[in-house]
Amino acid sequence: MKTRILSLAASAALALGSHCTLAQAAGVNRLVIRADQPGATISKHIYGHFSEHLGRCIYEGIWVGEDSPIPNTRGIRNDVVAALKRIKVPNLRWPGGCFADEYHWKDGIGPREKRPKIINTHWGGVVENNHFGTHEFMDFCEMIGAEPVVCGNVGSGTVQEMMEWVEYMTSDADSPMANLRRQNGREAPWKLRYFAVGNENWGCGGNMRPEYYADVYRRYNTFIKNYSGNRVYRIACGASDSDYRWTEVLMSQAARHMNGLSLHYYTLPTGSWSGSKGSATLFDEAQWFATLRRTLRMQEFVVKHSEIMDKHDPQKRVGLIVDEWGTWYDVEPGTNPGFLYQQNTLRDALVAGINLNIFNNHADRVKMANIAQMINVLQAVILTDKEKMLLTPTFHVFEMYTVHHDAKLLPTELTSADYEQGDAKIPGLSVSASRDGAGVLHVTVCNLNPNQPAELTCELRGAKPQNIAGRILTAETMQAHNTFDVQEKVKPATFSDCKLTDGGFSATLPAKSVVVLELR
After folding, report:
1. pLDDT < 70: residue spans in the chain
2. Which residues, in sequence order, are CB contacts of 519 under 8 Å at separation 6+?
3. DSSP strand E in 18-69: where?
């Protein structure tokens, strides 16, 4: 299928809201919020996370073992659990990633000292001792209040293996797999809502053609059963970036067998997987601009893949599941290249805010998203160093945006001044708005320009709030980040440079900032 790809500038313009235009004059930022026309519910699952057996995400990040001097509950870090509860993690994807299609779940059950060790061929060639398996993962999800998203092995696994795993986790019958679970210490079955049939099967999951994977998906999906009242939401492997043909084939040949179709897109400042991807902390304004410009392409991909899905599924029954997204830089100097450990700056906070605004604005189709990854890997919300733990700027954006969880999307129309760098330009603002169950309106706005504040005027239709308040995340420099020695250099603060007007509100948004406004 031949598909026209939007230019970077055009796709960036679309990212401002459900309907938007570029500014007609510099410095003009006008927003209309249609509170009288509420849209789809913004699923809390858009705010999901991803944990792979990669680097120090699982081991050291989540799992330290029951004998560790680091305070833990059944081997899981107490400080990490407490922090993740603050951002109300709705779901967690596991065990991969590329690791998923080499993972054989029976290696990770039973007495830990008897579990076989394997080589993690994808990530650093290290020994995986399988101490963190199904029971430990489900225990962790219960601790943080997240729904598990389990990714099954299609690349190197079998239909029987996948079928038995679902039975092991969800059946309460007197059957071999359910009894094996009981033998391993879990009497009652778990509730497992989300199950993914493979990961990146166009690449590390088997280098398959879409026609072949469509048939493989249909076969594997046939044997994913609903046991004991548990109903599985089945997620098919979707496309990477602009591979619209993959989506066309999957939707035309397998849509009626799936509940969700995935999409992966990583923000690379250079836009290239070869060579240097740039430093996470040592960058200039040109690299800041390039990163935000490329992350705005998420809008293009969501729109174009959704258009294909709409053609085959006009009722929007199949959800678009963006289950890997985030920034990808060079690893921190001196760390294992296969561990993908990177720092996290104010730039990453803007990337998070922009992408979450995009997902919110497409809540009619985007039903889940998972930032990569939760701890110590890529755009992590938490970093750890032995007994130390810190919260990244991205963590704070997720905490600020919890106000959108399961709220009603309010359509927005934004006219924004451009942010220019040389001959290139992108919109200066990104926004989304919602109304929660108590009737409170929330507006999240990102000012992408690192040099200039933005004067914003808003017309609010269908609501007359009596009070306005806000919170802000910003810092003195673009490169600002939290360290284990200075852990609160970047953290939210009260924002008061906003006021109600006769028809809405006005606000002065500082440069390089993420702001959440609350209107009651």
Report:
1. 1-27
2. 440, 441, 442, 443, 460, 463, 465, 467, 468, 500, 505
3. 19-22, 30-34, 48-50
Q: Pull the structure tokens for residue 98.
A: 């590329």
Helix extents (H) in 87-223: 134-144, 159-170, 176-183, 210-222
d(CA 40, CA 46): 13
Pairwise CA distance, residues 118 & 125, whole Å: 10
pLDDT, tens digit (0-9, with 9 covering 90-100), for 212-265: 999 999 999 999 999 999 999 999 999 999 999 999 999 999 999 999 999 999
pLDDT attached to residue 24: 36
Q: Catalytic positions, please?
A: 200, 324
10 Å Cβ neighbour count for 73? Answer: 12
Distance between CA atoms of residues 332 and 481, nearest Å: 14
Rounded Cα–Cα distance for residues 76 and 408 (Å):
35
Three-state DSSP state, 275 = coil
Backbone angles phi, psi at 99, to 5 degrees: -60, -30
The confidence score (pLDDT) of residue 7 equals 35
First-last CA distance in the chain: 48
Q: How far apart are CA 394 and CA 223, in angstroms?
A: 38
394: its two tokens: 């991205």
Cis, peptide link before residue 24, omega less than 30° from 0 = no
What are the backbone dihedrals phi and psi of residue 510, each rounded to the nearest 5 degrees, phi first?
-60, 160
CA distance linking residue 157 with residue 101, whole number of Å: 7
DSSP string over 231-254: --EEEEEEEETT-HHHHHHHHHHH
- Reading phi first (left if > 0) and then psi (alpha if -120 to 50, else beta), residue 148 is in beta
Burial class (CB in 10 A: 0-12, 13-18, 19+), 449: buried
Instruction: Look at strands 429-435 and 408-409 and give their pairing.
Output: antiparallel
Half-sphere exposure of 34 (CA within 13 A, CB side): 12
Nearest CA among 32, 44, 9, 3 for reference residue 299: 9
| CA pair distance 514, 354, nearest whole angstrom | 9
Q: What residue has token string 């398959």? A: 208
DSSP-derived secondary structure letter, 478 = T
Query: CA-CA distances (angstroms) from residue 460 to 37, 264, 430, 465, 482?
Result: 11, 35, 17, 9, 36
3-state secondary structure at position 106: helix
Burial class (CB in 10 A: 0-12, 13-18, 19+), 199: buried
How far is Cα 441 from Cα 407, in angstroms, rounded to an integer?
9
Tokens of 27: 């410095």
